[in-house]
Every structure is written in C-alpha cells, then in structure tokens.
Amino acid sequence: xxxxxxxxxxxxxxxxxxxxxxxxxxxxxxxxxxxxxxxxxxxxxxxxxxxxxxxxxxxxxxxxxxxxxxxxxxxxxxxxxxxxxxxxxxxxxxxxxxxxxxxxxxxxxxxxxxxxxxxxxxxxxxxxxxxxxxxxxxxxxxxxxxxxxxxxxxxxxxxxxxxxxxxxxxxxxxxxxxxxxxxxxxxxxxxxxxxxxxxxxxxxxxxxxxxxxxxxxxxxxxxxxxxxxxxxxxxxx
Length: 237
Fold this sequence. Notes:
237 residues, alpha/beta, Rossmann fold, 10 helices
C-alpha cells in the first residue's frame, strides 16, 4: 500500500477540474484522458483535459518544447499529470526524478499541482514491476507531487483476478481494460475518491468495453486497496 496516494483533495469541484497530461503512448493509447473524463461524467464531476503526448517521449523531451512550457504556465490547470516510460534502470530513475522535480517547480509556479502517473514494465520484463514502482514513488517524493500508482493497481487487480487482461497485444501498451484501471486510479487521485460504481459499458479508445459486476468489483477493490482514509494520512488512528 502506498500511504497518502489518494489523500482527499482540497480541490473544490464546483467548477470543472482541469487536467493537463504530459506523456507518451502509455497516455494516448486508448485515449486515457477521455476515459478519465467519462468516469467524471458518470460520477457527476465535470473534467476538462488536454494532452501533450508523443511516442517514446520523456519528461526531458517535453521540457524542450517552448509550446508545452507556455501551456503549463498559462493554462490555469488544477493538475498536470506527468508520465514517461517505466524508468526502472538506475540511470532512467535518475532522469525521471530530475525532470519530475524541474517540471514540478514550473507547475507549482503556475498555480497547479504536479502528479506522477506511475506506469508498468512490459510483460517481458514483468519482474521489474517493483523497480518501476520505486522509481515513480521516489520521483513523486522528490518532486513533492501526487502519486497516481496505476502500475500498483494492475498488480492488485491481478492478485484478485489473475486472468484479467490488462496488457495489449504487444505486451506493453495497455488493453482497454488496462487503460480503464489506470483511469480509475488517476480519477481517484485528482478527486479524492474512486467512483462508487462503473457503467455497464464505457468507451475506451475505439472500443466500447463491457464491465461485468465481477470485473467492476475487482477494479474498484484494486484501487480501494491503494486508498487511505483521511484520518490515517497523518499517522493518526
């Protein structure tokens, strides 16, 4: 369990929640931001998103874009959600940490909150899950950013249902169900709680995904396992 990942937000939800996503194909596959918006619609929370995501892009690459820097500075965002590759190797962990810190300083200067969208390794490198989790968790701490542990939720979902198909055909990018679970994690992190229920069908990318009661139970339980009640965030009982 990652204590404090989903500590309730102070964000007032009377107005639309504005999210900017900076990432790569793990963000634009199946249009993750659109799924976050759809979850908000089901839950009665208006969410507006914008996405800057390019194939294989790292946070360092986004930093080199003056357009992206202007978008962060002038966008009046509530959260800027950052993501790059798994970043499990030592040099990549340092890269993720250093550029997360640099971006977070710029994000806070613009009045928004930084958030780290923790991803996962390829199926081929499944044993790297812990290293990926550690890399993103350490970057979030260094950057004082909210941690959105989608990769941890994948592991928890598999513990509850080992047959759940979260990888896509290439064994790295998410399946529609993998994107949906990541979207629930992100939604929970930026609003302070996961939806109470999921729709029977939801559009994920180009597909309409059917969610059975059993699958709904697994997905929401996996996210709930990562959530911490407010009274426990500061160590109180």
